[in-house]
Amino acid sequence: MHALTDLFVGAQGWLFDSFVQPLLFGLGLGGFVEMGFEGIELVLLGLIELAIAYTLMRPLEAWWPAEKWAQRRAVQVDVIYTVLNRLGIVPLAVFALLAPLFLGVDGWLRFHDLIPRQLEDWLPALDHHPLASFLIYLVILDFSEYWRHRLSHSFRWWWALHGIHHSQRQMSFWTDSRNHLLDDLIAGVWFASLSLLIGVPPGQFIGLLIVLRLVENLSHANTRLGFGPLGDYLVVGPRYHRWHHAIDLPADPRFACGCNFAILFPIWDILFGTLYLAPHLPPTGIHERTELEIKARNDFRAQQKLGLVLLWQALTTKAGRQSSA
Predict the structure, then answer these.
(1) Residue 112 confidence (pLDDT)
(2) CA dist list (Å): 188 to 192, 206, 266, 284, 288
(3) How many CA atoms lie within 13 A of 112 on its CB side?
(4) Does the model's pTM come out above 0.70?
(5) Which of 41-50, 83-92, 184-193, 268-277 has the highest mean pLDDT?
(6) What share of the chain is helix, strand, coil (3-state, %, to 5)?
């Protein structure tokens, strides 16, 4: 384990010294050197995530698929999204937009001696139980992600962006990262802001992010895998999440905006009445209403443009897209 850690740190240091640091100083961004070093860590961890996801989930999709496809051409655009996300290109774009704001807020908080208290400050015994504190942070953030996800289906302007994630008719483990860039920005601010508010330590923040992203990879996989009569109610899996992406929602007013919004723990859907499971596995996607939407289904640039068009319609007219798939 120490050898792997040393290899990771060595690769991070080499990339920083050889490429990132000279680039930052060349662009006059020397003040962001520390963040640049941390950014390399995210990129390397993203590569590891990609390797784990592909090694474990691609064979699962091939051996036990929920749907059999004659060809996987529609999946290609989701691969683009995943590479952009996991290699840090999308997070770096978010950083470029938000860095001045976060630095300003952080400086203001420190100047007024308002440093967010960590969980260990409230429960000192957790200092000696890092796994317990990690799990508590995970539950808090998962609860928050449930509501972010549910709200993205509830507001027409937000669904204009989030609907792109649901438009995939060939859902696979790559689909997790299929998001409009503005939706990614909202999700990133939501997650990072709450983490800052509850005092998640930087080291645990990265671990929490990785756990949630790997679970989301698995939950989107094209596989019939389930966790059994009990397990499906304990952890979100492919069968559970497939109903969230169903092209036709259950005929029940409770599910007018969707179902199964939980990211990791189904308990939130159980508590708030948004759980739906059935023995069969539904086809995925949304019913596109215009030729523009149909053409954008498998095209990255067209999807980004479509999201902005639908967002504008939702904000300026009463005839915007409905908030259910």
Answers:
(1) 67
(2) 6, 13, 22, 25, 27
(3) 7
(4) yes
(5) 268-277
(6) 70, 0, 30
